[in-house]
Amino acid sequence: MHQPYYKDLVSGEYRLPWVRLHALKDYRGMVKLLDEFPDIHQTFNLVPALIAQIQDYADGNARDPFWEVAAKPAADLTLAEREFALRYLFQANPHNMIGRYPRYQELWEKFQSLSGHAAQAAPLMENGDLTDLQVLSQIAWFDEFELATPEVRELIAKGRDFDRHDRQFVIEREKQMLAAVLPAYAGASARGLIEISTSPYYHPILPLVCDSGMGAVSHDGLPLPQRPFRHPEDAREQIVRAMALHEKVFGVKPLGMWPSEGSVSDETLAIAHSAGIRWMASDEGVLGRSIGRSFARDGQGHLQADAAESLYRIYRWSQKAGSQKAGSQKAGSQKEGSQKQKDAQRKDASMRMIFRDHSLSDLIGFVYCGVPAADAARDFLRRTKEACRPILDSGTDAIVPVILDGENAWEYYPKSGREFLRRLYEGIGADPVFKAQTVSEVIESRPPVTEMASIFPGSWINANFDVWIGAPEDNVAWDALSEARDFYNENAAAATPEQKALAFEELMIAEGSDWNWWYGPEHHSANDRDFDELYRKHLSNVYQALGAAPPESLARSIIADHKRPKFAAQTAYISPRVGSLSASYFDWLGAACLVADRSQSAMHGGSFLLDTGYAGVDAEYLYCRLDFMANIAEWAGEGATLVLNIEAHRMNNCADEAIACKLEVTLRELQIKEWVLDDGKTTSNKIDGALFGLRKGMSFECRMPLSAIHAAQGSVLHNRFSLWRDRLPLDALPREGAIELYVVPEDELGAMAYAKP
Description:
Blueprint: H1 18-32, E1 42-45, H2 48-58, H3 65-71, H4 79-88, H5 94-98, H6 102-113, H7 118-121, H8 127-139, H9 144-147, H10 150-158, H11 164-190, E2 194-197, H12 206-210, H13 214-218, H14 232-250, E3 256-257, H15 266-275, E4 279-283, H16 284-291, H17 305-311, E5 314-319, H18 328-332, H19 338-345, E6 349-356, H20 358-367, H21 373-393, H22 418-430, H23 439-444, E7 449-452, H24 472-491, H25 497-510, H26 514-518, H27 528-545, E8 567-568, E9 592-595, E10 610-617, E11 621-628, H28 632-635, E12 640-652, E13 655-668, E14 671-678, E15 683-684, E16 691-695, E17 699-705, E18 716-725, E19 728-733, E20 739-742, H29 746-753
Parallel strand pairs: 1-2, 3-4, 4-6, 5-7
Antiparallel strand pairs: 5-6, 8-9, 9-10, 10-11, 11-17, 12-13, 12-18, 13-14, 14-15, 16-17, 18-19, 18-20
Helix pairs in contact: 1-11, 2-11, 2-14, 8-11, 14-15, 21-22, 24-25, 24-27, 25-27
């Protein structure tokens, strides 16, 4: 469970609302669900910076402008506040959260019809619209348990035309829910249902805080910041503070730690040991690079037996004082002699280690949201059994660590994934081969351990640190942090104790991983600018706390302009030569085109296989083309299925009538083996005029008569591609919504394409 530190310590204001919103929807509900399954023990990792912010809300001290604008009477909102409300109160999953409430969906569509720009729409939205938005934007984040209470059910049933009392009820209910989060964890821990582990206080990438040169150790040749950052004392402080807050809140010191983003190195393990941590976790990729083996899976997702035996066990990392750390020599070459001095100061250290099954964890995090809950739970248990079978047959237990984000995944599941989790927990409880335990419970059962003398420096993402260092934006951010850290060293002695404490706290916050998560090419969101401004504000506060003006460079955005995923509407009829090797770019000129968004997410994972989708019509046919990121031979395994979902909408007696069709195409060995079109009443694999083609394994094309998909003049087509393998979704385009086409005469089509700004 993790969120960045959104609070500006100088102004006291929260710059983003995600701590509060996830505390309403996920943090308490995830642990409360275990009341129904007392034998399903789990480890919950709560980042201390998150705990501190939840406490701030629970104590009534949080200044949250997002909450304030939701609580203020709509008639009293200034124009700027109305714009603010429209900009932020729609930031929720469009299908599972906004679409769950008809009035919320209606308001979203009205906002889009008014240009979708807050400044333009704000004067045009009525007070009643804004009041309904205020209430529903909060209810959408309520946990399933809260939604089931009579008072909230009654409010949901009302649906619209909310009043002052409704708005006040929602705000007061949120206060109660926020106050219940941490006691829920403490209670579950006291009853033995869960173990609570910790992370470094402000979620820094510890190996990089100890030595930014580790970025080039995990990825040889990676460009590094101009100013090296080497502060192992800060890494230790982040851990010590984490343990102190954990003990204060929960009454005991944590035994274990999920190091931020699973990031480890020999140096950080030694520091954690000296602070009292007894177990840590990372990813199978780090283990693989540490012991020199691969955890590759076949087309069915199966590990080889010897790979499973290596992964599904407890390791004990240990080193003697003064021993040379693997992977540190190269980083140390930037600072001759420093490594030997560090080693000489160390004492003997050891750490129990577990390594997450990347595939199983990511199935829950990124894939099963698109699969019926019962099917997904069965599939997970089946895969786990198959992976462990050789180990179990030898008479040995298999320890399978499944570790994933505690909040972000559930926005993509219907009803916050609670049905899936219930089915999963029921399946575990009903099968004697499974036992769900906390990490400490497993360690205390004294399973055999495998010794390891060194660990490769890396994170759960590609067993390196590329997400956080190496890209131009990342390196600029590190240089700004190094400059502020050096300024602190040079000026803190002359400051008052209060100034010094504030400046150092801001440095610790700026060391957090989340700022660089959003810098660089990997991840982007609607809040990129907010994160950038907040990061530079934390660094500026260091200088201001010490009585100096921040450098002018902190007034400039670190974010560069990124090429964003784009959609272009159809502008003319197309008649491409489907499957022809002589076809060219011009065959699809005028088609609707959607470039995949592979970064618009707070999460990192899943498969990105679809690059660009094209769709268009002429007077008789629908044409579709799907370009892959890689040749299908690289990812299809023994076979894959391409699905094209098509909804034909048309008005019938002033009502929107929709007929859904599904085209399933089986791909195998660089060929289209078979296809079938299902319109809900009949299925067919023989349709006059239908054509299919697979071009060099890199793109799929098809032509389908409009009559076969129940489309006619005036219809609007919603098209969505998805790839499946072994009955599980691999990727989709678009991931939300659909590619929209209009079945109209060509002259109207061209005019419509340019009708909207």
